[in-house]
Write a structure and sequence with these properties.
By secondary structure, the chain is α/β, with parallel strands linked by helices. It has 4 domains: 275 residues, Aldolase class I (TIM Barrel, Alpha-Beta Barrel), CATH 3.20.20.70; 27 residues, no CATH class; 58 residues; 112 residues, Double Stranded RNA Binding Domain, CATH 3.30.160.270. It has 17 helices and 18 strands. The protein has an 8-stranded parallel β-barrel, surrounded by 8 helices. Helix 7 crosses helix 8. The longest helix is centred in the N-terminal third of the chain and has 18 residues. The termini are far apart. Bound molecules: 3-methyl-2-oxobutanoic acid and zinc ion. The site of zinc ion has 6 residues, from loops.
Length: 506
């Protein structure tokens, strides 16, 4: 049995953000990073700063604002990438540069067009450069599992000799089998004696649905860091799911003898926040965080659980923070009740923040009988995002009919100026989006539109997420309202706000 503390390296904001259709702005990235810090991850991989100015800004903001955690930036084994990564994270309390280069022959021949000697040389020089800038350097051998083990060992040994403090062995294309991957890690540790003095890490992709199983095999073989993402987000089929990995180690601790620093009661909230901001819904039967993960449908199971929970549950919903959704407020609840309810959710609100949240809560409570904890969490994060917006939807009117073409008028406020927009076109949503374009003077193209109910019941809060193309770039926006038309209009305005913020609209 292996023993010890496993480092949880979260890559939701880097590999996860590479999933198609996800485009988070810097504020949303900071919001997720703060929640990841509350969750207790050890390392946040905040992004790939050389990839775009938006990514650089997100990483820089996280480095400056999120404390109590290592903030890591990704860089190819290229001088410009490494210097840019360092510029983005230098303000962090605990910065880490993560540099990588491929080691498999197929990548060397077709992608890098480099010889093995050239790759070995680049790995040496670039790790040495990264070490000259930052005390904490991680080196990854991309496509390690399809690499010649001897060559891989030579590259890893060189990276250790140059001063890398973490060595990551990724299964980049999700090809490994658990028993094979465990043996692969053991063999590398035997072939590279220096690996005993650094942290051995793994980064598994889920192409065959084995990312978590492979990560588990690796920690049983002695790896000490697991790279994973919330809700299993990531390139293609995703990365190892953070919540599954953590709850395996937690639930089977007596057999595995391994632990993490994760505060598991924050898992559910983290999963919901990531799903809300990325627009990636969690499948209902997903392990740990799916809507049905703790639901019992059959009579026999319900009967068993009512008599004794452990008859059909190996972990409790409350262990991942799911039981808190019972708090219910209504239109007669006062500001103190709201403050206490928010505190129960771990959110401290005072002064102006409390005033704003209370005003928003009252508007919703006037239209919705019961405001639940889930509603409150959404409401507050929405409030915080809105404060940073340049454009605000002040009012709208849209006509909808079975016979006539819908018409719409909107008023948008921009830095105190009221912008009026109107349209006369296809469907009522199309009409409202065109009226917003008219007010702001852009031509947005709707690329994606999703609606979901935050809680149950006819008066549920509706959450709308849109992806809008403006001047050739995609921007996402999410908003909530009891009225789906209003939520749609606000989500569209938020996407346009994101376009302004990223410099996509002048
Ligand atoms: O999948 C992969 O190999 C990666 C590396 C950059 C670690 O994402
Ligand atoms: Zn990856």
């Amino acid at each position: 049995m292996s023993s010890g503390r496993i480092t949880i390296f979260d890559t939701t904001l880097r590999d996860g953000e590479q999933s198609p259709g996800i485009s988070l702005n810097a504020l949303e990235k900071v919001e997720i990073a703060e929640q990841l810090a509350r969750l207790g991850v050890d390392v946040i991989e905040a992004g790939f700063p050389i990839s775009s100015p938006g990514d650089f800004e997100g990483v820089q903001k996280i480095a400056a604002e999120v404390s109590g955690v290592t903030v890591c930036a990704l860089a190819r084994a290229v001088e410009k990438d490494i210097r840019t990564a360092w510029d983005a994270i230098r303000e962090a309390e605990r910065p880490r540069i993560h540099t990588f280069i491929s080691t498999s022959d197929v990548h060397l021949k077709y992608q890098l067009r480099k010889s093995r000697d050239e790759v070995l040389e680049a790995a040496k020089r670039m790790v040495s450069l990264a070490v000259s800038l930052c005390d904490d350097v991680e080196f990854s051998a991309m496509d390690a599992t399809r690499s010649d083990p001897e060559f891989l060992a030579a590259v890893l040994a060189a990276a250790v000799a140059e001063g890398a403090t973490t060595i990551n062995i990724p299964d980049t294309v999700g090809y490994a089998l658990p028993s094979e991957f465990g043996d692969f890690i053991r063999r590398q540790v035997e072939m590279v004696p220096g690996l005993k003095d650094v942290t051995v890490s793994v980064h598994c992709h889920n192409d065959l649905g084995l990312a978590v199983a492979n990560s588990l095999a690796a920690v049983q073989a002695g790896a000490k860091q697991v790279e994973c993402a919330v809700n299993g987000l990531g390139e293609r089929a995703g990365n190892a799911s953070l919540e599954e990995m953590v709850m395996i180690l937690e639930t089977r601790r007596s057999s595995l003898g391994l632990s993490t620093g994760i505060n598991t009661v924050e898992i559910d909230r983290t999963s919901k926040l990531v799903s809300q901001l990325t627009g990636y819904e969690v499948q209902p039967n997903k392990a740990i965080v799916g809507k049905n993960a703790f639901a019992h449908e059959s009579g026999i199971h319900q009967d068993g659980v009512l008599k004794e929970r452990t008859t059909y549950e190996i972990m409790s919903a409350s262990s991942i923070g799911r039981s808190r959704s019972d708090i219910v407020l209504g239109k007669h609840s006062g500001r103190h009740a709201l403050k206490v309810a928010m505190e129960e959710l771990g959110i401290e609100l005072d002064g102006e923040e409390l005033d704003q949240a209370f005003a928003r809560f009252k508007k919703i409570a006037d239209r919705k009988k019961q405001v639940t904890a889930v509603d409150l969490e959404h409401l507050v994060s929405e409030e915080l995002r809105q404060q940073a917006d340049l454009l605000e939807l002040k009012s709208y009117e849209v006509t909808s009919s079975s016979e006539f073409i819908p018409t719409c008028q909107v008023i948008i406020e921009k830095e105190g100026e009221r912008l009026l927009g109107k349209s006369f076109s296809g469907g009522s949503m199309e009409s409202i989006f065109q009226a917003i374009d008219d007010a702001v003077g852009i031509q947005g193209k709707l690329k994606d539109y999703q609606v979901r109910a935050v809680t149950g019941g006819k008066d549920a809060l509706g959450e709308v997420r849109v992806v809008v193309e403006v001047n050739g770039e995609d921007y996402a926006g999410t908003a909530l309202s009891i009225d789906v038309v209003e939520a749609s209009a606000k989500a569209y305005v938020r996407a346009v706000n994101n376009a302004y913020r990223a410099g996509g609209v002048k």
